[in-house]
Amino acid sequence: MSRKPPQPEQAPLVPEKIHKILATAGIGSRRQIEGWIEAGRVSVNDEIAHVGQRVTTADRIKFDGALVSLNAQTNPEVIIMNKASGVVCSRRDEEGRPTVFDSLPNLRGSRWISIGRLDMQTTGLLLLTNDGSLAHKLMHPSTGLDREYAVRINAELEDDVLARLRAGVEVDGELMRFSDIRYFNGGNRNHWYHVVLMEGKNREVRRLFESVGCVVSRLKRVRYGPVVLPSWLRNRQWALLQTEDLRSLYKMLGLNYRAPQKSQAQTRRARVAKTTCLLPYPDLKG
User: Fold this and answer.
1) Comparing C-alpha atoms, which of 154, 59, 66, 80 is closest to residue 110?
2) In a 10 Å sphere around its CB, with 0-12 CB exposed, 13-18 middle and 19+ buried, how is residue 236 labelled?
3) Do 249 and 278 meet the contact criterion of CB atoms below 8 Å apart?
């Protein structure tokens, strides 16, 4: 009588916080997911979830009533987009305005996550990813990524005003400052500056210039940490970061990069950036 060979023991499932597991599944960033849990949009085994709850991949987790696939293997991707004015960063807009998600390719088992936001009138570099852990790392203040903007205002600023904007200005009870501000070019009542922020609070660039009596007529983000907006990426266009850029970005942030599955490479990487979109960047201590 033959015996079946012994089956290898399966490793026990290790409970993890629900927002981390859902971020890994590409549902959203950890901060977004915590908000959804607080709003009662997430359930575990048909019971409303709570922030800090620990789960495993064996649990039945639903988001807005739809079962989340926790074991799906998705290729990590990052999109760079040249956002146009008049386009919103929400997934859906009650007023029917175009959103940055309208032109993106569909994903199976995950969704695109916007890394930070730009207000409706601000243009330029917007990053999106299907990796919630990467989105969390890129957005969290402790990571220490700065953002650079090109700004057109109606006056040329004196040196003492530039120094004040670097030192910090109290606006509506909040201390705001540019970590750097430099004159670019201009004349008459159109002057361009490049400014750098560490966090990017709501309308921070516009509010800082308003605090010194200036009006912002154009605002464009040109860099997010080490990722720059390439000159060849036209208004409303998007492209996927090159694989080597992805590897470098994950390494820079201290995250493990999962190599793409060959069977999905052609369909997922149909519109790849023409050049590298990364700049040399200081070591990140966060």
Assistant:
1) 66
2) middle
3) yes
The residue among 136, 114, 137 whose CA lies nearest residue 127 is 114
How far apart are the C-alpha atoms of 38 and 137, rounded to whole Å? Answer: 21
Q: Which tokens sit at 66?
A: 């739809």
Q: Same CATH fold, 146-224 and 78-142+227-268?
A: yes
What is the set of active-site residues?
119
End-to-end CA distance of the chain: 61
> CA-to-CA distance for 282 and 239, rounded, in angstroms?
25
Span 146-224 CATH architecture: 2-Layer Sandwich (3.30)
Q: Which fold has domain 78-142+227-268?
A: Pseudouridine synthase (3.30.2350)
Q: Give the contacts of 114 (CB within 8 A, at least 6 positions apart).
A: 89, 100, 101, 126, 127, 128
pLDDT digits (tens, 9 = 90+) for 35-85: 889 999 999 998 899 988 888 878 888 888 888 877 655 688 999 999 999
The contacts of residue 220 (CB under 8 Å, 6+ apart) are 122, 123, 124, 149, 150, 151
pLDDT in tens, 153-202: 999 999 999 999 999 999 888 899 999 999 999 888 899 999 999 987 88
Question: Half-sphere exposure of 239 toward its Cβ, with a 13 Å CA cutoff?
Answer: 21
Q: Distance between CA atoms of 162 and 178, rounded to whole angstroms?
A: 9
CATH class of the structural domain 16-67: alpha beta
Helix H or strand E segment including 83: strand 78-83
Q: Which two tokens stand for residue 113?
A: 């996550």
pTM score, whole prediction: 0.79
